[in-house]
Specification:
The complex is a heterodimer of chains A (583) and B (292).
Chain A (H helix, E strand, L loop, with lengths): L6 H4 L23 E8 L3 H12 L4 E4 L14 E5 L6 H4 L3 H5 L2 E2 L2 E8 L2 E6 L1 H5 L2 E6 L2 H17 L4 E3 L4 E7 L2 E7 L5 E8 L6 H5 L11 E10 L3 H5 L7 E7 L7 E7 L3 E9 H6 L4 H9 L2 H7 L5 E10 L1 H4 L5 E2 L2 E3 L8 E3 L2 E3 L1 H20 L6 H11 L2 H5 L2 H10 L2 H12 L1 H12 L2 H6 L2 H4 L6 H15 L1 E2 L11 H7 L1 E3 L7 E3 L4 H4 L1 H5 L12 E8 L2 E8 L9 H5 L2 E3 L7 E3 L4
Parallel strand pairs in A: 1-2, 1-11, 2-8, 5-13, 11-18
Antiparallel strand pairs in A: 3-7, 4-7, 5-6, 6-21, 9-10, 10-11, 12-15, 12-16, 13-14, 14-15, 17-18, 19-20, 22-27, 23-26, 24-25
Chain B lengths: L1 E5 L2 E3 L21 E3 L3 H15 L2 E7 L5 H11 L3 E5 L9 H18 L5 E4 L11 H9 L3 E11 L4 E7 L7 E7 L2 E5 L10 H19 L5 E4 L43 H21 L2
Parallel strand pairs in B: 1-4, 1-6, 4-5, 5-11, 6-10, 7-10
Antiparallel strand pairs in B: 2-3, 7-8, 8-9
The chains are: A alpha+beta (583), B alpha/beta (292).
The complex binds flavin-adenine dinucleotide and iron/sulfur cluster.
Amino acid sequence: MAANTDPEEKTADAPAEAIDRGEVASVADGDDYEHYEAVVVGCGPGGAAAAATLARNGVETLVLERGVDAGSKNVSGGLLYAEESAPYTIDDLFPEFREATAERPITDYYLHNVAGNRVKTFDITDLHEHDTEWSDAVLRRRMDSWLAERVHEMTRETGGGLLTEVRVNGLLRDGGEIVGVTCDELDPITADLIVAADGVNSELARDAGLMDWERPEEWFQGVKAVVDLPDVDDRFDISEDEGEAHLFSGDLFSDVRGGGFLYTNEESLSIGTVFHLDSLVAEEAEPHELLDALLTHPLLGEWLDGEYHEREYSAKLVPDSKKVALREPHAGRLVLVGDAGGQMQAQGPIIKGMNHAVTAGALAAEAFVEARSRGDSTLAGERYAKRLRDEGVMAKLRPRRYEAASVLGERSPVANLTDRVVDSRAGRTVLRALSRANGLERLYGSPYLSMMVPDTATPYVTLPAVIAEELGEPVEGENDIEPPSLADRIGELTYDTDVGNPHIELLDSSVEASGAAVTACPVSARDFGGGCYREEVVKTNGDEERLVSLDTQPCVECGTCAIVADTRWEHPRGGKGVEFREG
Amino acid sequence: MYTVTLTKGVPDFSEGAVSFDEDGHLERGKTPTVMNPNDRFALEAALQTKVRHGGTAAVMSMGPPGYGEVLQEAMSSVYADELFLLSDREMAAADTWATSITLATGIERIAETREQPDLVFAGFKTADGETGHTGPQTCWCLDWPILTHVIALDIDETERTIRVKRLVEGDIEEIETVEAPLPAMIVTDPEFEPTYRKAEHRLTFKDLREETTERAESYEEHLTTWDHAELNLDPDYIGLDGSPTIVSGVDPIPKAPSEREATVVDPGDEAGMESVLDELLPYTNRAAAGGD
Ligand SMILES: Cc1cc2nc3c(=O)[nH]c(=O)nc-3n(C[C@H](O)[C@H](O)[C@H](O)COP(=O)(O)OP(=O)(O)OC[C@H]3O[C@@H](n4cnc5c(N)ncnc54)[C@H](O)[C@@H]3O)c2cc1C
Ligand code: SF4
């Protein structure tokens, strides 16, 4: 009953109201826009790095984050790298970072090739350690909210600060030129620099015409469960300053291209899957079932030991930098950093998004500071793109080797051929020979090769399965855990639903246009009535028609249906929608 | 801007907190005191003013010393800077008239000892008395303009004017915009909602929240208590002695019988409807006879 009305809460309820409180009129500030030197949209790793660097250089910086708390909207597998070659790592910018927010350093890295219950495990710690200063498992709610506090303190000193529960809904233009941002909760704001660090499905990148959401082959979908495990040390036989990463590929996900991961946190595990979105759609696979296939595989029995308590189920799209990383991620005063600019590198099995977002954020900030000091801040974008090239970031995001390899590798006749060769008797003989000389493990551990892995079934499904069949041993022991149903998973999530104001609108409800979402949406499933997307049979004049319907209430804002269905897709208003506690 | 928000402690009428004796009288001693619910809106208006224009937000209440906690709650709600409690035995058992005289004197005292308040905010009706008199009467004593049923407001500091949106006759369908010179009194409607559409305001809000959490913990340090002597008030004009209102009696509202007998009659059944009319007739007579 306290009058402690947070403006962030208050206005969030406003539009549902019938009463026009509007601006009482014009006695006050007139219609001058508020102005900040820099506006940073989003406070994930990219936004935090940009804001901290701007603030350190005395740039008046406003940070706008749509979640109730930074991190409440974010999902990652959770392995954050500090690369030796990177010009900026997160602990350069936030020195206490590791101690304050990281879960565990990851000191051992394994790749499991699976065929049925046969498994061949490679130790690829070498690949993991290549160019790695350190790498920690993180949980995003904890990490991002900690970063946000630091960012607020730092930016407040400059006259700006960080606000949560504010969603930027577009770019403010003046005569076609980008001059600022518009928000659901605030009046328009102008700025000399706009940093779009708003993650995958960046509404700003789309508004600027730099990204479209058309092709599923440009994205991965990640799904994850955070599993409670108070005695991680005992189960994995590690000390508190050690941690393990396990990757899984082979036939446990049928023919869907992608793989699974397991990372150890302080007292929990992050277990998840990352699949090529086009493959997920083509196979009409149910993401939660693929996750369950991993969770219930006998290999995990050893660690889970019959107990399973899921803290959180979550999902998010991940851009594939090889295809979408923008070479010129800027337009006028706008710069894109992190996922917003497609800077998410899948280096073979290793996923590097957060670290590149940090580097890019800091480089963009630095580019602005330099441009400003030379008296022309409009050059920030170009300077930023140049810094990405000069520092070698762009070469990692869009490796030339991949481009050369994929020209051949992904054309289907060639792809089919490689697949058949690997699976053939000759292929299998080569594998066995390689393995005797320990060459296979070395090949897998090669950072050079891992950059050119083509997006075909061969590296994801066929090769690992063949390896497991030829060289693997059957897993002993069993795994009888029962993951929760989709309904229970949704039931456990926290939502603040924006009643009467759905953030996704289905534009075409035909099965052809939008039916893919029924299976691809991680909180929907065929024959499940409690999800977002459903297929329904509608009777009209004796005819029967199959139509897709949408209810955004259980939506986890993963972004999948923005790509695979015909929708008008936006993020919910500030503070509304799902709230992740782990992330 | 210097604003004063008037607030009052009332019995906590919420389920589980409130306590009645056998005759249905409120047991004050057993019922906790909380801030009057409608005052929340006044506090929000004061907070919005402070966030947008800076300055000092003061909260004032007349009541027993135990009201300190109500003021503490108000302090953390409005992120107030100063608290004033007008309190002594002579002020006790005041009706709205005596209360208004006391509050108006308190506001004048603030003007003498601190600075001239620009705005006084009051909530609409208290949960115990439900009269809605105190705000307007206090304003009458001060001889300031008063704006009631306010749902939104905007201040022009240079012109020293306030412009508000208000519900005409408290009607949600009819909203008018009116302007008044400062100082003025604002009575907020429960429909009042603050708006913060500037980043700068929200950032200030965040700062205030951080500052005030600490301040509210040691609220006594920011609390000034004035008794009638310090306010130069004649005991004959305040408290019970200064209260012209005579409460002749308090009737408890009878509880609805929890179980009723009901006979269901089909409206199509003529004989049945006839008997319903027969049943009802005596009541219509009684109502007519009882009217005075
Ligand atoms: C399952 C999964 C596993 C992954 N595993 C790894 C891994 O092991 N290692 C790794 O490095 N990366 C991993 N990633 C990728 C990584 O999570 C991202 O690359 C990284 O989070 C990108 O950071 P960012 O700052 O660009 O965007 P985000 O972290 O997505 O942050 C964007 C921020 O902007 C906010 N926002 C969005 N829109 C708006 C708006 N309109 N207005 C205001 N605020 C807005 C969001 O709330 C969010 O806080 C994984 C991703 C997934 C889904
Ligand atoms: S409705 Fe769309 S955005 Fe929401 S969870 Fe499903 S696929 Fe993801």
